Amino acid sequence: MIYFQLFLSFFQIGLLSFGGGYAAMPLIQGQVVQGHGWLSMSEFTDLITISQMTPGPIAVNSATFVGIKIAGIPGALVATFGCILPSCILVTLLAKLYLKYREMAMLQGILHSLRPAVVAMIGSAGISILVTAFWSSEGDTVIRLAQTNWSLVVIFIISLILLQKGKKNPIFVMVLAGVMKVAVALVEKFAACCGTIF
Amino acid sequence: MESKRKVLQKLFLSTLYLSAFTFGGGYVIVTLMKKKFVDEYHWIEENEMLDLVAIAQSSPGPIAVNGAIVVGYKLAGMIGVLVSIIGTIIPPFLIISVISVCYQAFRDNFFVSQMLEGMQAGVGAVIASVTYEMGAGVVKEKDPLSLVILVCAFAAACFFKVNVIYIVLVCGAIGAVRTILAKRRGAK
């Protein structure tokens, strides 16, 4: 019974979350916090924090997290399956139609107008990630020159050069960016220690 | 093209590997897929990739999962969908299963938080690089309407926080109207 409830809840989340992770968040909250009481509000906040710190879509992460908490590994499997099933059906259908009819003038016209929009939306997602990285502290994001995280700005520029000029592997660059930040933070800690000693 | 088994194997490993590094939302996996399947393997053309991303976006559900499904279907049909979904799901499933046991320690760890902060800047650079390459492709077409759509869609998404589904619908409608007008002009 609990498995069926988990499946149904996450099936709805998968079916109704248009527009990516942030659109899914209120739906997940509605189902698991208000609807079924599977998580408390503070557990839900923790879940969102963890989702942002780990790879993977928020909906899939939530399904795994809630499933395990409520009904162990089988619960996690059922919830995850529920959450991706609507995508499997709809996206496969759309992909099939696209590959079959893409030579059609009408579909060509629609896709031609969609391409620049897709580029714009990818760019916009990149900007919101960078704004959070450069200017967010303790959960608030205020764009002010004095509060810029300059070490991250420098890491961003180095990463961009490595990608564009060096043609380096993107995942290598991402990991390197993380390592650079750890190094900067260690140096800062060390400097702070020296500062208190002298 | 390589043998089907080889393709499936590469597809599985690529989606597994890309999914393990999609910090920061669905658009990251889309840009990584572009680098892998378009630039490295040459399995998909750049314009086709943009169409596939549009499909992934206009459907409900996580963009990362939808992206894996369209690419899997395009490369190897239903079996491709299965393989790429499993590849995409395994990393977050395992990671969250482990972390759900000890999440407070993980959340408060100094190295983890610094590493993740730095990776955000790296992710931003990857997206900037892909946007630049794809944007240059749109500009090169020298189609004024495409440029207008590029600018307006960007403003709508970035400054006015319009839900992507509306942007997709409006731009699709513009394309449809344009095609109808062009046909009428052609008929006269």
Automatic annotation (TrEMBL), chain A:
A molecular-function term among this protein's GO annotations: chromate transmembrane transporter activity
Membrane-protein topology: Multi-pass membrane protein
InterPro entries associated with the record: CHR_Transporter (IPR052518), Chromate_transpt (IPR003370)
Keyword annotations: Cell membrane, Membrane, Transmembrane, Transmembrane helix
GO CC entries: plasma membrane
Subcellular location: Cell membrane
Source taxon at top rank: Bacteria
Keyword Transmembrane helix: yes
Pfam family, one: Chromate_transp
Chief location bin: membrane
PANTHER family on file: CHROMATE TRANSPORT PROTEIN-RELATED, CHROMATE TRANSPORTER
Annotated family: Belongs to the chromate ion transporter (CHR) (TC 2.A.51) family.
Protein name: Chromate transporter
Source organism per UniProt: Fusicatenibacter saccharivorans
